[in-house]
Amino acid sequence: MACVFSACSGSASLFQGTNFFPFATKGSSLHLKRSLSAKCVASLGTEISVPPAVDTFWQWLKEEGVVSSKTPVKPGVVPEGLGLVALKDISRNEVVLQVPKRLWINPDAVAASEIGKVCSGLKPWLAVALFLVRERSKDDSLWKHYFSILPKETDSTIYWSEEELSELKGTQLLNSTLSVKEYVKSEFRRLEEEIILPNRKLFPSPITIDDFFWAFGILRSRAFSRLRNENLVVIPLADFINHSARVTTEDHAYEIKGAAGLFSWDYLFSVRSPLSLKAGDQVYIQYDLNKSNAELALDYGFIEPNADRNAYTLTLQISESDSFFGDKLDIAESNGFGETAYFDIFYNRPLPPGLLPYLRLLALGGTDAFLLESIFRNSIWGHLELPVSRDNEELICRVIRETCKTALAGYHTTIEEDQKLKEAKLDSRLAIAVGIREGEKQLLQQIDEIFNEKELELAQLEYYQERRLKDLGLCGESGDILGDLGKFF
C-alpha cells in the first residue's frame, strides 16, 4: 500500500506536467495587495488622497469613456491598500463598473499585437505574461497608466525571501511555492531561448526573470475567468475591488454587449455589488469560495482567519511494485481516479468522497485479493464504499496515523506556540506563515483523530464476508454465522 501526503497545496492537481494552468478558473482573481501609499486608514471615514499615479489612471479611464460623473465609485486608500469606495448608496446587484473589451489584456490582445505571430504557439498564460512585460516597457502602450499603478510584488509566497519562506518549514504551501517558482523559471528559460532572443527586434528591452515573475504574479492574482469564451483576462479598474469573506456568492461579474464609450459599441465586463452599500463603504467581492488558505496565500498573498479555509491535501498513489498494480489501476480509472489521486481535506468537514474506497483499494491484498478478479470489476467500487475486512481497515488506519505523526514532526513550532505568536502584532507575511502552519497542524490532528476513532471501532464494523453471508441468508442480524458454517470462519 502506498500512502503519501502531498507536497502541494489544495490545488495540487493544477501543477502536474504539461497540464499546468496557473490561474483560477472557478471565479474572479482580482486584488490589489499592497498600497501604493505607505499610509493606511483605519476606517473609510478618514479621507486620504490616492497617489498621483492613481489620479492619472482615473483621468485616462475618463478619456476612454469608462468612467464619468455618473460612476458610483472612486479609488480610495483603504485598509487593504487601494480599493473602490462608494460615492453614494448602492443597492445589492447594482452595477458599479463596466470596462470595454478593447481595454482588456487577454490572448486576443496579444494576437493583435506586434508579437502576436511569434506567440501564437504558446500557452495562453505565457503569451499574456510576455505581452505584459513588453507593454510595460513601452512609453506609448495603451495601458501605460494602468501599469504605473500596479505593485512590483504582492505578499504572494512566490515573492518571499528565503528567510520568510523558512517560516513555512514543514508546510505543504512551502513545497507548492518552490514547485511553482521552479516551474516559472523553467518556462522563462524556454521562452528566452525560443522566443525572446531570436526576436530581438520585437523585444529590444532586456527581459529578466524578475520581470517575468512580476507578470506571473499579476496574472496569478488578477486574471479573471468564467466570462463567455474568456478564461484568462486582466481588466484594468476591476482589480481595484478587494476580497471579503462577508461576500458568499461569486455571481457578481459577467460579460455583456453594450456601449463601449462615447463613439463605439463593444463587449463590456460588468461588475455588480454583491452587497448593499452606504456612501463611503468599500466595494467588495468574493474571489473564490472554494480556495483554501494555502491557495489564497499563493495566489493573492493573504489568508482568512476562518478555520474552514484551512485544508490539507492527502495524496495517494498505487505503487508500481504492487503485484496487483494493473488491476488496481484499471479499477481506479474506471471510477474517475488514476494512479495518483489527490484529496483535499478541509477543517471541520467530512472526508472527501472517494477517499476511503481509494484507500481500501490500495490496501487490498492477501485473502481480500479475490475482489480484484474480473467477475467483480463492475461492482467492486460499491464494495469498497464499505469496510472490506478487518485487516484491510486496520492497515489503512495504521498507515494514515503514522503519516500524520511524521508530518506533524516536520514543523518547527507547535500549535500552542503559533497561537501565542498570533497574540502579537505580526508582519503580514509572518502572519500568513503562522496561520498556514497552525491550520495544517490542526488538519493533521483532525485526520489522526478520525482514523483513531475508526481503529477503536474495528471490532464493531461489518465486513464484506458478513454482508455477503447475510445476503445469502446464512448469517443472522447479530452477525452470527448460521448452522455448521460457523466452523469454517
UniProtKB/TrEMBL annotation:
<feature type="domain" description="SET">
    <location>
        <begin position="64"/>
        <end position="288"/>
    </location>
</feature>
<dbReference type="InterPro" id="IPR050600">
    <property type="entry name" value="SETD3_SETD6_MTase"/>
</dbReference>
<dbReference type="GO" id="GO:0032259">
    <property type="term" value="P:methylation"/>
</dbReference>
<comment type="similarity">
    <text>Belongs to the class V-like SAM-binding methyltransferase superfamily. Plant protein-lysine LSMT methyltransferase family.</text>
</comment>
<keyword id="KW-0809">Transit peptide</keyword>
<dbReference type="GO" id="GO:0030785">
    <property type="term" value="F:[ribulose-bisphosphate carboxylase]-lysine N-methyltransferase activity"/>
</dbReference>
<feature type="binding site">
    <location>
        <begin position="242"/>
        <end position="243"/>
    </location>
    <ligand>
        <name>S-adenosyl-L-methionine</name>
    </ligand>
</feature>
<dbReference type="Pfam" id="PF09273">
    <property type="entry name" value="Rubis-subs-bind"/>
</dbReference>
<protein>
    <recommendedName>
        <fullName>[fructose-bisphosphate aldolase]-lysine N-methyltransferase</fullName>
        <ecNumber>2.1.1.259</ecNumber>
    </recommendedName>
</protein>
<feature type="binding site">
    <location>
        <position position="226"/>
    </location>
    <ligand>
        <name>substrate</name>
    </ligand>
</feature>
<keyword id="KW-0150">Chloroplast</keyword>
<keyword id="KW-0934">Plastid</keyword>
<feature type="binding site">
    <location>
        <position position="222"/>
    </location>
    <ligand>
        <name>substrate</name>
    </ligand>
</feature>
<dbReference type="InterPro" id="IPR011192">
    <property type="entry name" value="Rubisco_LSMT_MeTrfase_plant"/>
</dbReference>
<dbReference type="InterPro" id="IPR046341">
    <property type="entry name" value="SET_dom_sf"/>
</dbReference>
<dbReference type="InterPro" id="IPR001214">
    <property type="entry name" value="SET_dom"/>
</dbReference>
<dbReference type="GO" id="GO:0009507">
    <property type="term" value="C:chloroplast"/>
</dbReference>
<feature type="binding site">
    <location>
        <position position="287"/>
    </location>
    <ligand>
        <name>substrate</name>
    </ligand>
</feature>
<feature type="binding site">
    <location>
        <position position="300"/>
    </location>
    <ligand>
        <name>substrate</name>
    </ligand>
</feature>
<feature type="binding site">
    <location>
        <begin position="80"/>
        <end position="82"/>
    </location>
    <ligand>
        <name>S-adenosyl-L-methionine</name>
    </ligand>
</feature>
<dbReference type="GO" id="GO:0016279">
    <property type="term" value="F:protein-lysine N-methyltransferase activity"/>
</dbReference>
<keyword id="KW-0489">Methyltransferase</keyword>
<keyword id="KW-0949">S-adenosyl-L-methionine</keyword>
<feature type="binding site">
    <location>
        <position position="254"/>
    </location>
    <ligand>
        <name>substrate</name>
    </ligand>
</feature>
<dbReference type="InterPro" id="IPR015353">
    <property type="entry name" value="Rubisco_LSMT_subst-bd"/>
</dbReference>
<dbReference type="InterPro" id="IPR036464">
    <property type="entry name" value="Rubisco_LSMT_subst-bd_sf"/>
</dbReference>
<keyword id="KW-0808">Transferase</keyword>
<dbReference type="InterPro" id="IPR044431">
    <property type="entry name" value="SET_RBCMT"/>
</dbReference>
<feature type="binding site">
    <location>
        <position position="239"/>
    </location>
    <ligand>
        <name>substrate</name>
    </ligand>
</feature>
